[in-house]
Design brief:
Elements: E1 9-15, H1 19-30, E2 37-44, H2 50-60, E3 65-70, H3 75-84, E4 90-93, E5 99-100, H4 104-115, E6 119-127, E7 133-137, E8 143-145, E9 151-153, E10 161-164, H5 165-170, H6 183-193, E11 197-208, H7 214-221, H8 233-247, H9 252-271, H10 276-293, H11 313-327, H12 331-349
Parallel strand pairs: 1-2, 1-4, 2-3, 6-11
Antiparallel strand pairs: 4-10, 5-11, 6-7, 6-10, 8-9
Helix pairs in contact: 1-2, 6-8, 8-10, 9-10, 9-11
């Protein structure tokens, strides 16, 4: 059993066959301007030289690195183990093929403490192995103000943010092992229950476009309900259950909107490459989840196309149309129409 660590920040890094990029990731972490942190690296049954690299760095950084060696159980399990094995006041997740800027921890911590927040979120840059930047995302694009004046973020990745441990423990926010896209239910849970969120005009996280990452595999292969590329059904169910257990119906308006927004968005992500049977199972699950989670006739003003006007119009229209098909029990037809639309678009590009 690894010793628990009480540095200010725990940087949790799940590692699976990441030897090609791991040194670059670790070097960026250990080069931080803020030094009161510990790295909790969880080797998730890697078959390459990842564990050897982790042990090498752990020997070098004896007081600032803990290595857990686990059987392969997926990224969600590894992140949960990292939370369990640390006692730091703040939690940061970094993926083993990514990089953080030198002032990343310092900036996130400073802004979070200044704002008295439960979490702070920043933007990110997407880059290829040769350093070419292929996209950026500013966190202010995720910003929204709810009816009660609460600042809310439509951001779901566990990375590019810092969490107060008390938020994760108080709300029992954890990843569900064995499912893909586990960040989404986790992010929904955190965004809804955080007492205060700070959104930074700063891009300090760098995502590598890695063809072997789960996200890229989804784009190429779609969902495989019998593999680790599973749709996060249990994740959504547990997020709803835990929010309701702690807060009753207090957050129902935004919870309803967040579920529809993300179920719609994930359907778009997986629809092209997943089999029709898998898509049908996803739409059936989505209809059941919403029916069981909300009373008949429940309405949320947040799904109106006129709300959240800072968000792209295409998002707002997609959410509203998805909701209409959902209420009619016709999500599978909605998915079929999207497949056909995408197919026509592909033909036009030939």
């Amino acid at each position: 059993m690894a010793e628990k660590t009480a540095h200010k920040i725990a940087v949790i890094i799940p590692v699976y066959n990441s030897g090609k990029y791991l040194r670059e990731c670790l070097d960026s972490v250990f080069s931080q301007s803020f030094e009161d942190f510990v790295v909790v690296a969880v080797n998730d049954g890697s078959k390459d030289d990842s564990l050897q690299i982790l042990q090498e760095y752990a020997c070098r950084e004896k007081d600032r690195m803990t290595v857990l060696d686990e059987e392969n159980s997926g990224q969600g399990f590894a992140r949960n183990e990292g939370i369990r094995a640390s006692e730091s006041e703040y939690i940061v997740f970094v993926d083993a093929d990514d990089i953080i800027e030198k002032d990343y921890l310092e900036t996130l911590l400073r802004e979070m403490e200044a704002g008295g927040a439960d979490q702070a979120i920043c933007g990110y840059t997407r880059f290829q192995d040769d350093g070419t930047v292929v996209g950026t995302r500013d966190a202010l694009q995720w910003k929204a103000v709810l009816d009660d004046g609460t600042l809310h973020a439509f951001c779901y990745t566990a990375c590019a943010r810092i969490f107060r441990r008390d938020l994760l423990e108080r709300e029992n926010i954890r990843f569900v092992p064995g499912e893909g896209m586990e960040d989404v239910p986790f992010g929904i849970h955190a965004n809804i229950t955080a007492a205060k969120t700070v959104i930074l005009d700063y891009r300090g996280y760098r995502y590598r476009v890695n063809s072997e990452s789960t996200t890229e595999k989804y784009k190429k292969e779609g969902v495989r309900q019998t593999s680790k590329l599973r749709f996060p059904e249990k994740g959504f169910q547990e997020a709803v259950s835990r929010i309701r257990a702690a807060h009753g119906s207090q957050f129902d308006d935004i919870l309803y909107y967040e579920l529809i927004r993300n179920l719609c968005g994930l359907l778009f992500v997986v629809c092209d490459k997943s089999s029709r049977d898998v898509v049908r199972s996803i739409t059936s699950f989505s209809e059941t989840l919403m029916k069981e989670s909300f009373p008949a006739g429940f309405r949320s003003a947040y799904t109106s196309v006129g709300r959240f006007k800072d968000q792209p119009l295409s998002y707002r229209i997609a959410v509203r149309v998805y909701e209409l098909f959902l209420r009619a029990g016709m999500l599978n037809i909605f998915a079929g129409m999207y497949r056909a639309f995408r197919g026509i678009g592909a033909l036009r590009r030939v």
